[in-house]
Amino acid sequence: MWKIASPDHTLTVTISGSNDGALSYGVDKNGVPAGNGALGILTSIGDFSAGLRYVDQSERMIDETYSLPAGKKAEYVNQAREVRLRFEKEGVPFDLLVRAYDNGAAFRYEIPDESGGDSLRVYREATDFCFPESFDTLWLQDWVPTYEAPYNKTRWGVSHDGRHYGMPSLLHAARDGLWVMINEANVLNTNGSYCISHVKGTGTRRLLLEFAPEEKGEPIPSLLPFRSPWRYLLVEQSLDAVVNSTMNYNLNPPSEIEDTSWIKPSRAVWAWWSSDMGAQIFTEAKQYVDFAAWAGFEAVVMDAGWDETWIKEFCAYAHERNISPWLWTAMQTIDTYETASYYLPLWKSWGIDGVKIDFFENDSAHTASCYHMMADIMKEQKLMINFHGSTKPMGEGRTWPHFITAEGIMALEYYKWSDMPNAEHNCTVPFIRNAAGPMDYTPVGFSNENRNTSMAHQMALAAVYDSGCQHYSASIFHMEPWRGTDFLRRLKPKYDGVKLLSGFPGDHAAILRWTKKTEEYVIGCICNQSRILRLSFDFLPEGEFEAEIYGDNRFGDAITYEKIPVTRDGFVDIAMPEHGGAGLYIARKILPLAPVYSKNYMHPPVMTLDCGEARPFTGSEIANLSEAGDQTVLLLRGGGALVCEGIPEAKNYTLRLHYCAHAAFQLRISDGRTCVDAWLPAGGPGTVFTVADVVMRLEEGPCRLVLTRLSGGEPLISKLAVIGNDPEVPICLPVETGILSGAGYLMEDPFGSYKLQGMTKGSTLTFNDVMLPDAARYVLRVDYSAAPTGIADVIANGAEPVSAKLSGVGMWGQTKEGDVLAREVLAPMQKGRNTIVLKAQTTLPPIRNIQLIKA
């Protein structure tokens, strides 16, 4: 028997040998048993689960600190006693490597190279995890290839027998006050020499280690010298310690990157959640960049649908505004060394800073080798990594600090097709999945009909959850008028520390993060059941501070705000409704938010007109939304007028309306000289406000803007911003003005225009004599109605065709047939007369028009 004590002697790992030469382990914390189980591994060069003969041992102390460019804290501490026990079986050496941490135990199996040969096959491990009766509460995730499932609170029983569960898994012994998490570490960065594992339940208090089902029970080819992944039990006496744990990082090799200055954690805006097809539109991608710069965020992620014709321009546009551009790709595009070596350097040459790689959904050793191969190439190219559709985190971010976040979580995307995730799930994952590593949950989504949490709950998730690239789900058009965006702008992409102020899995979580140098603190609070949460400010230094409190109104459908003085001796009671939340920002002196305006989408307004001061016409009225932050709005059933005291000069202006509308509506805006009609999209359920732009020429001097609803939904309009960015008006080519060759027919649509339906392969639509003022690259925008996906070639002046994939109704269930969509490509055009041809390569969805605007 060998007893291995942790550095502070509070935790002991006991290794025992049986009469038949089998090994087992036991872990106790302060003398209280915390877990035990069998050890051993079966391979082609020996069965090391029994018949082992002890040879010798060695010991070393590990005492180091390190930091990562992205992570939950400024400093990671790695202190452990490591013992290597050398055994032998039939002349083959076998090592059991054990580490005793103050907060847990870890072990791995090693076979040194003196055993002969250069490879072996691994059949299975004897490893299991058994627990005392005191550990009567478990949180287990039904294993799925994506790790996108809830962590179910349960108790031991026969129902677990034969069921497969993902790791990490969390267990609690309420009587002893202990928390245990089981997981593995140092798997992906072993060059595919081992598969990813999970656990299988039994009818007793025992979990068995299981290899990836994709291995289909076949042996795993591996290399000599051989090292298995680490298996570990995190043993903590508080949930705060669980949230702060970094054991899986400590079990990985040190960083392979000396200069990490190019690795930049970020808050990112991202169109996909609110619009499946958002990444198809170059002009909108630039708007996302402008908004990110205005808000002080650090990145924009282009998801599925980005176009190769304009991605370099997008990257250049982003970098000019100090925004990091990220691209999405399916892993199947780069799952070989040849394809990854081609595409990743190519994308880097375009200016990409990071890649979001999706659809791994496989735990095999081969897939593990793909993670490693991609990470190596991306290290060389200085590209940051976000693994999606991926396995759970196992600490590889220490070796690969450019691996700054991963999915492996049932996240907000599930709102697109289900009623999950719910508040119970949201209140569970901070203590399990996010405790193990950064989590790309993509928080802050509030514009969906099936939202099952409050506004402040969604807002607070951005502070509760840790991610090196924190995607905000809400579109910029919903974030601009939303009060919760001010809280998001107060956040930072990385903090010096994290502390759980209050919480329990599935019930609630209040998490503090801070930046020491600037003395800034943020707290994110979320709950499942309604509660009043008392937060003490005893974490503050001496002196006076100010706190902004963003919370829920009584219905949870709007964000409230107050600012109060605070000191370390004080506290605040936060009232949260069911499924609610709150966010606090604390600083010595809270300074006004300073937007970074651009000359484009986020150009500063000349004036902003309060629609509460509008003159309503018959049928319209001024209303007060007392539950939405005391907003006064114009309920536009008929018409209303707003007075502009003075337009500074005659030119084109952007009129940005802030409104709430449950259905799209047709709006007319007139100043008595110019009249513009526009269809504006629905804003969202309840009191979800959005923004939409109308371009209109205004003359110098005072004017009276008349707003008339012509048809559709009845909007609540809160304000109208007059923005003097002199926007270029696109040149529109309606389909009825083109020359059709081949199949197709015109149909009138509800918008009072036409759409061209039924274009099949080989059909062409030609626009002659398209007059342009300059020779330049132009955005060619194909507007179409959603239907099954089609592919068209856009041919400008007989040049090489540019392929345009007109994505449509798909697997995510958000885009509906008939929705108005757009695909934008870039093409060089000449001054004067041009010819544009749209040629069908497959059956096309209904085409509405082509628009041109200078890039």
Give an overview in words.
The chain has 855 residues and is mostly beta strands. It folds into four domains: 2-250, Distorted Sandwich (Beta-galactosidase, Chain A, domain 5); 266-507, Aldolase class I (TIM Barrel, Alpha-Beta Barrel); 605-723, Jelly Rolls (Sandwich), CATH 2.60.120.260; 731-854, Jelly Rolls (Sandwich). 11% of the residues lie in helices and 45% in strands. The chain contains eleven helices and 58 strands. Strands 7, 8, 9, 10, 12, 13, 14, 15, 16, 17, 18, 20 and 21 form a 13-stranded antiparallel sheet that branches. A hairpin with a 6-residue loop joins strand 33 (545-552) and strand 34. Helix 3 packs parallel to helix 4, helix 5 runs parallel beside helix 6 and helix 9 (455-464) runs parallel beside helix 11. The model has no long low-confidence stretch (mean pLDDT 96).
Question: Can I get a quick summary?
Answer:
The protein is mainly beta. 11% of the residues lie in helices and 45% in strands.
Walk me through the topology.
Elements: E1 2-5, E2 11-17, E3 23-29, E4 32-39, E5 41-43, E6 46-47, E7 53-66, E8 76-89, E9 92-101, E10 104-111, E11 119-125, E12 128-130, E13 137-142, E14 151-154, E15 164-173, E16 178-185, E17 197-201, E18 206-211, E19 220-223, E20 226-227, E21 230-236, H1 239-244, H2 247-250, E22 266-270, H3 282-295, E23 299-302, H4 311-320, E24 324-330, H5 337-350, E25 354-358, H6 365-381, E26 384-387, E27 403-406, H7 423-426, H8 433-436, H9 455-464, E28 469-472, H10 476-479, H11 484-490, E29 497-504, E30 508-515, E31 520-527, E32 531-536, E33 545-552, E34 559-566, E35 571-576, E36 581-587, E37 605-610, E38 615-616, E39 621-625, E40 631-635, E41 639-647, E42 651-660, E43 665-670, E44 675-680, E45 690-698, E46 701-712, E47 716-723, E48 731-734, E49 739-741, E50 745-748, E51 754-757, E52 764-772, E53 776-785, E54 790-796, E55 802-806, E56 820-829, E57 832-840, E58 847-854
Parallel strand pairs: 22-23, 22-28, 23-24, 24-25, 25-26, 26-27
Antiparallel strand pairs: 1-2, 2-3, 3-4, 5-6, 5-11, 7-8, 8-9, 9-10, 10-20, 10-21, 11-19, 12-18, 13-14, 13-15, 15-16, 15-17, 16-21, 17-18, 29-30, 30-31, 31-36, 32-35, 33-34, 33-36, 37-47, 38-41, 39-40, 40-47, 41-46, 42-45, 42-47, 43-44, 43-46, 48-58, 49-52, 50-51, 52-57, 53-56, 53-58, 54-55, ...
Helix pairs in contact: 3-4, 5-6, 9-11
